[in-house]
């Protein structure tokens, strides 16, 4: 079936679902496949639960006029999203990067919402399925969209930008992450820069650029760039760090005027994420006072640089993701934080390939310089790299430790890859 024809069916429905546990009345079910499931098998069930149409790619399940057969359901989902994006023409800001893209996306959306009706990526739905599902939630009421795009192998950003077709874009940074998939740091840079490659070819496209990042400045050659950075009044937006004790406070400047912001964010590295949001807000004519109000009021969630105060301790939970770049940034910030009795609980960084042990050793070496009151390392990779710090095989072993010897009166950094499940420790501290 031609995508234009299928789009007429979608317009009848207005919504798409890929999960029979969530079938809004009159929606369109698209049968996706995974390693352990085949959505085609649930097409009939989706109709029974309220879907108007079901889309399948295996002929044996197309046994009803309301079940539409296509060649490939995933490709159809992506093409349908692009068709919808083109039909509405909503201005789209595309975001990618190694670290900080989800926080930056949240900050951008928070700022833009002060003036516009904004659709933005929910949670971490930033892959080949999440991006099209986000786009298919666009309505005529939305005035702008902020779409996050993630990648763990070459070519993935290229795929996503050709679905979302952003009008402008931002790469937060590039660092050592998913090296198993990318092969090298150069592979990371090349893949993230696929956003730049797309925008170079699009008429009237532009980017928001961290002018302090030499790698991104080089990669963005030839693009119209709106620059932001630290303590450089010549830039479109400039920032100056005031404090991180523990919350981030900073000053920003635009067109000769200065503004102060006192956030609920943890980490000096979040200044750049905030400056990106400010630059985008200024470019799209959000008033400066409204930008400050948005940033002051934003409270992070999803275990990303959250400060949680329990009965006994202050917890800095950053346990959604971890790679050498983000781990080092978190540790450097924790070391500089103006608080006493610091404890670092760190879990393995995943998907680093052959260089994993070496990257974990670098973290251990830096820890030796930090002078934290206590360090607890968790996981096999840290076990191989450890040079004397307290070490446990998994989060369950740490829970047993805290059941016997619970820390009290500490500032505790919890950082590791999501698969290490360190966020569970909040209940034990």
* Strand ordering within the main sheet: 6-7-5-8-9-10-11-12-13
Number of helices: 16
Oligomer: single chain
CATH fold call of the largest domain:
UDP-N-acetylmuramoyl-L-alanine:D-glutamate ligase
CATH class of the largest domain: Alpha Beta
Report the strand count. Answer: 19
What is the radius of gyration? 23 Å
Shape estimate: globular
CATH architecture of the largest domain: 3-Layer(aba) Sandwich
Give the helix/strand class.
alpha/beta
Q: What are the low-pLDDT stretches, counting only 5+ consecutive residues below 50? A: none
**Major beta sheet summary:** 9 strands, mixed
DSSP strand (E) fraction? Answer: 15-25%
- Straight-line distance between termini: 56 Å
Number of domains: 3
- Could you state the CATH homologous superfamily of the largest domain? Mur-like, catalytic domain
The helicity comes to 25-40%
Topology:
Blueprint: H1 3-13, E1 16-17, E2 28-30, H2 43-48, E3 53-56, E4 67-69, H3 73-88, E5 92-96, H4 101-112, E6 118-120, H5 130-135, E7 144-148, H6 156-164, E8 168-171, H7 179-182, H8 185-192, H9 194-201, E9 206-210, H10 214-219, E10 225-230, E11 237-244, E12 247-254, E13 257-266, H11 270-283, H12 288-297, E14 306-309, E15 314-318, H13 324-336, E16 342-347, H14 356-370, E17 374-378, H15 380-385, E18 390-392, H16 395-404, E19 411-415
Parallel strand pairs: 1-2, 2-3, 3-4, 5-7, 5-8, 6-7, 8-9, 9-10, 10-11, 15-19, 16-17, 16-19, 17-18
Antiparallel strand pairs: 11-12, 12-13, 14-15
Helix pairs in contact: 1-3, 4-11, 4-12, 6-9, 13-14
């Amino acid at each position: 079936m031609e995508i234009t024809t299928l789009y007429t069916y979608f317009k009848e429905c207005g919504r798409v679902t890929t999960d029979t546990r969530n079938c809004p009345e009159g929606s369109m079910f698209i049968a996706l496949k995974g390693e352990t499931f085949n959505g085609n098998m649930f097409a009939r069930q989706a109709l029974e639960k309220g879907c108007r149409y079901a889309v399948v790619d295996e002929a044996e399940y197309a046994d009803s006029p309301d079940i539409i057969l296509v060649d490939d359901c995933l490709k159809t989902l992506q093409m349908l999203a692009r068709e919808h994006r083109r039909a509405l023409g909503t201005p789209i800001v595309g975001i990618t990067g190694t670290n900080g893209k989800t926080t930056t996306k949240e900050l951008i959306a928070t700022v833009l919402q002060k003036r516009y009706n904004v659709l933005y990526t929910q949670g971490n739905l930033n892959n080949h399925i999440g991006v099209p599902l986000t786009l298919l939630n666009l309505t005529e009421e939305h005035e702008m969209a902020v779409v996050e795009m993630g990648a763990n192998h070459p070519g993935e950003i290229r795929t996503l930008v050709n679905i979302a077709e952003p009008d402008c874009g931002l790469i937060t940074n590039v660092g050592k992450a998913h090296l198993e998939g990318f092969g090298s740091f150069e592979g990371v840079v090349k893949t993230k820069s696929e956003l730049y490659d797309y925008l170079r070819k699009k008429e009237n496209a532009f980017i928001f650029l961290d002018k302090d990042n030499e790698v991104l400045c080089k990669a963005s050659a030839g693009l119209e760039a709106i620059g932001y950075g630290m303590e450089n009044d010549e830039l479109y937006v400039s920032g100056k760090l005031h404090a991180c004790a523990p919350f981030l406070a900073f000053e920003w400047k635009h067109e000769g005027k200065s503004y102060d912001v006192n956030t609920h964010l943890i980490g000096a590295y979040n200044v750049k994420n905030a400056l990106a949001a400010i630059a985008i807000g200024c470019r799209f004519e959000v008033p400066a006072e409204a930008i400050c109000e948005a940033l002051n009021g934003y409270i992070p969630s999803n275990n990303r640089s959250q400060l949680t105060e329990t009965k006994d301790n202050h917890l800095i939970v950053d346990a959604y993701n971890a790679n050498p770049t983000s781990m080092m940034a978190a540790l450097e910030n924790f070391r500089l934080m103006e608080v006493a009795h610091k404890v670092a609980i760190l879990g393995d960084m995943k998907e680093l390939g052959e260089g994993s042990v070496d990257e974990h050793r670098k973290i251990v070496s830096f820890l030796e310089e930090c002078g934290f009151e206590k360090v607890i390392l968790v996981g096999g990779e840290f076990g191989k790299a450890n040079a004397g710090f307290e070490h446990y095989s998994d989060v369950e072993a740490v829970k047993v430790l805290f059941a016997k010897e619970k820390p009290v009166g500490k500032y505790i950094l919890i950082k590791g890859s999501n698969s290490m499940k360190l966020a569970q420790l909040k209940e034990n501290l």
